[in-house]
Amino acid sequence: LSVRTPVEGTVTGLPIAAGVNVQTGELLGQLDNPLSDHQHLDNLLTLKDAADSTAGAIINEQGVLNEQRSSLVTRAEEHATAVSERLNHQIIEAEHLLSVRQLALDQANTEASRARQLRDLGVVASADFEKLLSTQRIAAQELAGQQAELESVRSQALAASHGVLTEPGTSSDVSYSQQRADEISIKLAENQRTLVTSRAQAVEAEIAIKAESERSNLMHHASLPSPIDGLVWKINAVNGEHAAAGDTILSLVDCKRQFILAQIPQNRLPDIAVHKTARFRLAGENSERTGTVLTVSGSTLRETELKLAALPPENANKKLALVLIGLDPLPS
To answer: Which of 157, 241, 273, 323 would bridge with 87, disulfide CB 3.0–4.6 Å?
Structure first.
């Protein structure tokens, strides 16, 4: 079995020499790559910091805006209260003026009636009588105007009691403070959406940072544990050597397991499947044995000669394939 490097790096901690027995999980060596790229991790950290900063700034701004809105709402309520009180005073004043106008009209009616009798008797001249009639008509018109003024003030007071300020000379039915409070409420809603987005980005970046940190650590450092109980057969690297990802560092042999190499004609390869049971009989034996097909190769793989007790004989005249079969234990 070949132990390969999962990442690029400098090899350290290798066994001193071949022939050492190792146990499953025993550390065979390790790889360190101080030059591994952390740019993506740095970018994620920057993104998370930016999202956290944005969220923090928005929270601070939300606090300031809430205080401003509270102050403006208080001012708007005070303004509405002041307007309502002023309109109530105007109603009282208008009612008093209406009473005055009514008295003036009553007096004008009385004087006009008396002057009509005196004119009939020839005591009052017609010109003076017409003057009194004009005064009567003016008083009636002033009374009607004051009545309309009273109704207008009452309408404004009723609207003000419902929060609608319809003051003369203004272009809006709300006060400046209320208008600013409404604008701040809209700004708070926009900030809340941005805050939710920033927090979501921060959470997403944090998850990505965790995953990228694990990946970065694996790229920066890797351990090479023994996958089996066996013997170190060959060491292909030395301590301090730089290895690329996928390089073979050392080879192990499972001394407790037997296997054979069998050569078969290549036209029989379709009948063979990896991990399937193979049945065979060794020369000089009468009983049939079984095993598991581990690998199938199109050549005899002469680079494995040093690891094998024997190899099948070469036959240059036939196209043969090499099958590695792990032997099943013999029944006791």
So the answer is: 157
Q: How confident is the model at residue 60 (pLDDT cuts 50, 70, 90)?
A: very high
Q: Give the bridge partners for 98, in sequence order.
A: none
Tokens of 276: 């399937």
Banded model confidence at residue 298, pLDDT cuts 50, 70, 90: low
Beta strands in the chain (DSSP E): 2-4, 9-12, 21-22, 27-32, 221-225, 230-235, 242-243, 248-253, 259-265, 277-280, 289-297, 320-327
Q: Residues 307, 233: contact at Cβ < 8 Å?
A: yes
Residue 315 is predicted with a pLDDT of: 58
Q: How many CB atoms lie within 10 A of CB 106?
A: 12
pTM over 0.85: no
Lowest mean pLDDT among 198-202, 204-208, 310-314: 310-314
Q: Is 54 helix (H, G, I), strand (E, B) or coil?
A: helix
Distance linking the first and last C-alpha atoms of the chain: 28
- Note the pLDDT of residue 171: 44
Q: Is there a contact between 181 and 69 (Cβ–Cβ < 8 Å)?
A: yes
Cα–Cα dist 71/162, whole Å: 20
* Cα–Cα distance, 208 to 201 (Å, whole number): 10
Residues contacting 242, CB < 8 A, separation 6+: 8, 9, 10, 11
How many alpha carbons lie under 13 Å from residue 88 in its C-beta half-sphere? 8
Helices and strands of the chain, counted as H and E runs: 3, 12
> Which residue's entry shows tokens 């005055």?
100
Sign of CA dihedral 9, 15, 17, 22: negative
Tell me the residue type at 70: S
Phi and psi at residue 3, to the nearest 5°:
-95, 115
